[in-house]
Amino acid sequence: MMRYKEEKEAKKEAFRKYLESSGAVDALTKVLVALYEQHDKPSSALEFIQQKLGSTSISDHEKLQAELSDLQMKYNELLAAHQQTCKELEEIKSSQAMVVTSTRETTDSESPKNVL
Q1: pLDDT for 60-103, tens place per residue?
Q2: By three-state DSSP, how is residue 30 classified?
Q3: CB 25 within 8 A of CB 19
Q4: Given a cut of 90, is residue 47 above it in pLDDT?
Q5: In the chain, pLDDT over 90 holds for what percent of residues?
Q6: At 39, is the secondary structure helix, strand, or coil?
Q7: Which residues contact 26 (CB under 8 A, 6 or more apart)?
Q8: What are the residue ranges spanned by the domains of the chain?
Q9: For residue 47, what are the contacts with CB-CB under 8 A and spacing of at least 6?
Q10: Are 54 and 28 in contact, with CB atoms under 8 Å apart?
Q11: Residues 6+ apart with CB under 8 A from 56
Q12: Chain-wide mean pLDDT for the chain?
């Protein structure tokens, strides 16, 4: 039982050292101090912390989601228009190929045959 507690404490200490060496403890401390020093406390402490750590707020996230949705719709519309244009181009190419083939056949039948 004692060894389990020692292992657990060692893991906790290793994690603390990791957080300290990576700068996470300092960053969190600075943000919490800034929140503490606010005279008018924000309505959402979590949003304040996210903003200070460089994360987007919930409202920013919602705006970005709406923008993504709009851009996805525009992309789908442009893709459909592109596919339609490609289809029309293929139809023009094949109809033009038919005209060329038809013209060749007409020209070949009108040209003089082996004259000797």
Answers
A1: 888 999 999 999 999 999 999 999 999 999 999 998 888 877 77
A2: helix
A3: yes
A4: no
A5: 59
A6: coil
A7: 20
A8: 1-55, 56-107
A9: 57, 58
A10: no
A11: 50, 64
A12: 88
| Burial zone of 102 (CB within 10 Å; 0-12 exposed, 13-18 middle, 19+ buried) | exposed
Percent of the chain with pLDDT over 70: 89
Mean per-residue pLDDT for 42-64? 84
CB atoms within 10 A of CB 69: 10
Q: Which tokens belong to 92?
A: 């023009």
Whole-number Cα distances in Å, 11 to 1, 4, 6, 7 = 16, 11, 9, 6
Check: CB of residue 52 under 8 Å from CB of residue 32. no
- Which residue, among 18, 19, 57, 50, has the nearest Cα to 34 in the 3D structure? 50
- Residue-wise pLDDT for 33-44, tens only, equals 999 999 999 999
> What whole-number distance in Å separates Cα of residue 69 and Cα of residue 63?
10
The total number of residues written for the chain in this structure = 116
